Amino acid sequence: MSKGQTINVSAIAPVVSRVQADAVLEICSRLKTVPGPLMPVLHAVQDRLGFVPKDVVPLIARELNLSIAEVHGVVSFYHYFRQDPGGRHVVHLCRAEACQSVGAAAVEAHAKRSLGIDFHGTTRDGAIRLEPVYCLGNCSLGPSIMIDDRLHGRVSPQRFDELMTSARAAEGGT
Q1: Which residues are paired to 169 by β-bridges?
Q2: pTM, whole model, 2 decimals?
Q3: Domain 89-170 architecture
Q4: Distances from the Cα of 132 to the Cαs of 15, 99, 112, in angstroms?
Q5: What are the pLDDT digits (tens) for 6-35?
Q6: Where are the domains of the chain?
Q7: Burial 96-112, CB ≥16 within 10 A → b, else e
Q8: Cα within 13 Å of Cα(58), Cβ side
Q9: Do 87 and 128 meet the contact criterion of CB atoms below 8 Å apart?
Q10: Per residue in 53-80, pLDDT tens?
């Protein structure tokens, strides 16, 4: 799209909000000249919106001159990309062998039970999303989790509960 030219976003992606459309258009405009722009664009969209809404996929495809199938294929292949809003806090639980050997399975079972969700799920109050990860690079201090961008080691089921209480308290929740 040339500078100053407008597009009819509602014709391409009729369910996309103006805020989402503006964010996607700005990101695509800024990044479409980098080699292989799709991954950087998807990361930037998720960083800005918190997820990659399925309804912005046609808009991304149009702006990068790709097919909708190509964009959808990348979004659905990489587990990192979320297609729904998820939680206000994302908890990545390490499932690598080093963490497994020091009790990560017990932390995983406890996390799922105490939060009432499975991996890729979000608690009913929208506070916590639980995601698996296959190494956080904190092997000597396993079991490890990362809450948002903060790494925690030697996590027991009890410490997990303390960390969840702190995460919820930090946002004013219960």
Answers
A1: none
A2: 0.70
A3: 3-Layer(aba) Sandwich (3.40)
A4: 30, 12, 11
A5: 555 554 555 688 999 999 999 999 999 999
A6: 9-77, 89-170
A7: bebbeebebeebbebbe
A8: 11
A9: yes
A10: 999 999 999 999 999 999 999 999 987 8
